[in-house]
Amino acid sequence: MSTIKQYTKKNGSKLWMFQTYLGINQATGKEIRTTRRGFGTKKEAQLELNRLLVNLEKNGIEKNNNEIFKEIFELWFESYSTTVKEVTLLKNEIKFKKWILPVYGEMSIKEVTVKHAQKIVNKWAKETDQYRVLHSSAGRIFNYAMNLGTIDRNPLERVIMPKREKSNKEAIKVYSKVELKRLFDYLNSKEGSYRSDYDKTLMRFMIYSGIRISEALALNWNDIDFQNNIVNIDKTLSQTKHGYIISDPKTNSSSAKLTLDDTTIKTLKKWQINQRKYMLTIGITDPKLIFCGIYNQVVTHHSIYQRLQTITEKCGIPFLGVHITRHTHASLLLESGASMKEVQERLRHASIKMTMDTYSHLSQESKEKTIEKLVKHLNF
């Protein structure tokens, strides 16, 4: 039940490795397998494998259980996958594959020291502001190894967390009234078609509702209460390994009923009529999604991103990403006199701290404009 094979490293050099079965973990009932890499010749790999098997026969599995980090991770991930939504699972898998497994993956879980972990987190701190999250995620695997009885303590708990120098990050950018007028003048000038009507409706809805693009793309027509000018937000478009699905929002605070203005409601009513008219010409009736493609297919975030790039280029305003509509909505609220608490509730942030951290500079600008208005009004 052992295999020896050659593999190629990223730099093109060839080394040897072996994989072997060690037995059953009594605590979990799972098979225990180990992988050893880095042997210069097949003979070296064979000798190390023989030594391991002799020790196993002599001392038993508990004393020879020398799994690498990746093996413990895979066992943990199998259980973890049953406790979270698929979209969360996918994000964590990407995080481990991109950052954590490349540095910890092939290390023996027993041989990782505080020094190893310190060097890794120091390096992460220079490369990403997510270094604390990465360190915490890696620590979960060591805690799991403790639960399995593989190690006695978690070396990552003794690491000194480095402080990352604050970057002079630019303040959140938003579209001005002039830029918004230019945007809508361009959209309204387009000849009527499924795509042009779609773009006009989506941009109006996004800027005047402030909802996330993933939430807008998941909306059904029955989520709009035309009589009371309300949109019900209780789902989101999520990416999975097998494509896109409509799922529940990640947090409870994301679900809400938001009030819409009269003009946005009228725009949606007109779009509902036109959407059915366009689709009927190709034999499609009764579309459910508000912002689907003409063939009733789900439209993805990437598609909207590319579409907005084209629109902004043609109307002569800067492309600032899809999230710009949400930022602009917050800016307009603050400029109109809304409090930070009202903005938090409108954007459905879990805490007001999140809102203030993101938009405090916009609030200050609004206050300064208020003083200017007072001075101009008094005129002495």
From TrEMBL:
InterPro entries (UniProt xref): AP2-like_int_N, DNA_brk_join_enz, Integrase-like_cat_sf, Integrase_catalytic, Integrase_recombinase_N, Integrase_SAM-like_N, Tyrosine_recombinase_XerCD
Transmembrane parts of this sequence: none
GO molecular function terms listed in the Swiss-Prot or TrEMBL record: DNA binding
Keywords noted in UniProt: DNA integration, DNA recombination, DNA-binding
Highest taxon above the source species: Bacteria
Protein's UniProt keywords contain DNA-binding: yes
Biological process per Gene Ontology, one example term: DNA integration
Keyword Nucleotide-binding tagged: no
Annotated ranges, domain Tyr recombinase: 170-372
Pfam families in the cross-refs: Arm-DNA-bind_4, Phage_int_SAM_3, Phage_integrase
Family per record: Belongs to the 'phage' integrase family.
PANTHER family assigned: PHAGE INTEGRASE-RELATED, PROPHAGE INTEGRASE INTD-RELATED
Annotated protein name in UniProt: Site-specific integrase
Organism listed in the record: Enterococcus plantarum
